[in-house]
Write a structure and sequence with these properties.
The protein is mainly alpha-helical and 200 residues long. The longest helix has 21 residues. The termini are far apart. The N terminus and C terminus are likely disordered.
């Protein structure tokens, strides 16, 4: 039944804290850890974006601060472009805020390994046009391969099989449906006059 001599009491198989004793770690919940992760993530993003001017802009040409991210591709996005990415589904683009969300270590590693410049250089090498609409760009074989390779690199796993030469610009599936194109329009920011917004 009750056993004394320590800061906690065991009763009916449960460990009860004595009055005034700190709660066991399992009772403290994840909040303190999340706050530490958020502070660490903030410092990482400040270094990554200040260290490379390319990371300070929306990868897809959106208007506004690049304070969102497509973790799947390691790139930074405006709020408008992040909405289009969300409409693609998490299998294509997993989106998080660089200022509000708690980040898993593997996702932070993907952002550290990636970046706007690296992804653009890869797409260029694969013959993917820079002005390709968002939905088409991220459904190319090049983008699909890149997100698998980035995740594997972050996890220390083997990369996927290399793309066949001259195939990176090809789509991985059918063209977007009218409903998908409507979703793009709903999620995208209305651009100011004369400003370029992401297509799609």
């Amino acid at each position: 039944l009750a056993q004394g001599g320590g800061p906690r009491t065991r009763r009916f198989g449960l460990i009860l804290a004595r009055p005034g004793a700190p709660p066991p770690p399992c009772a403290q919940g994840p909040r303190a850890h999340d706050r530490q992760m958020d502070a660490g993530a903030q410092g990482i993003f400040e270094a990554l974006q200040h260290g490379d001017e390319a990371n300070q802009r929306c990868f897809d040409g959106g208007v506004g601060e690049a304070i969102w991210a497509s973790v799947s591709h390691g790139v930074y996005l405006s709020i408008g472009a992040s909405g289009v990415h969300r409409s693609l589904g998490v299998r294509v683009s997993f989106v998080q805020s660089t200022t509000m969300d708690a980040w898993k270590p593997v996702h932070l590693k993907m952002m550290q390994l990636g970046g706007n410049r690296r992804f653009q250089e890869f797409l260029d090498a694969q013959g993917v046009p820079q002005d390709l609409p968002i939905r088409e760009k991220y459904h190319t074989r090049a983008a699909a391969w890149y997100r698998l390779a980035l995740r594997a690199e972050a996890e220390g796993a083997a990369p996927p099989e290399a793309l066949a030469p001259g195939t990176g610009h090809l789509p991985v599936d059918a063209a977007p449906s009218p409903e998908q194109l409507v979703l793009d329009a709903v999620f995208a920011e209305a651009p100011p006059a004369g400003a370029g917004m992401p297509h799609g």
